[in-house]
User: Fold this.
Amino acid sequence: MFIGVMSIQFWPKPWLESSLAAGSALIALLVVVPARAAGPSSISGCWTQTSLVPYAQTPPGKAWGSRTWCFRPDGTMTSVRITCGRSGWDRDGRYRWRRPIVWISDVDTSDDGKHQTKVWRRCRVSFRARDRMVLENCYFSSDPWVREH
Assistant:
């Protein structure tokens, strides 16, 4: 919850001369606004992204399935990917959250597949609803994610 508190001693005097305006301002300052009303303040929790294309229409060379990312408050995350017809995998990583940007640790593999480099992927997070988000301007898919409850 967020409670706004502000001293009125610094407000312009002509504005305070209206008792109706002063009363309205006081009420507005003391209104409690639940954090959920303004949208999620965190990406903590688990989010799942499922292939948008039906299994039968999966393009050649692509896998159908889902992936789940679980963001813990301590800055660590677990990624689990389950694909149909191929094996699934999981990995632990790190993330940094500074709303509306998330940085996710990842690994780049060289073209020949012999070398790996740790990188940070920067993504803008757009919350479409309390339990839905999309990653924008990002290396990762822009398909929607749904928060698990």
Remarks:
- Helices lie at 13-16, 19-30.
- The first strand starts at residue 2 and ends at 3.
- The two ends are 20 Å apart (CA to CA).
- Residues 19-30 form the longest helix (12 residues).
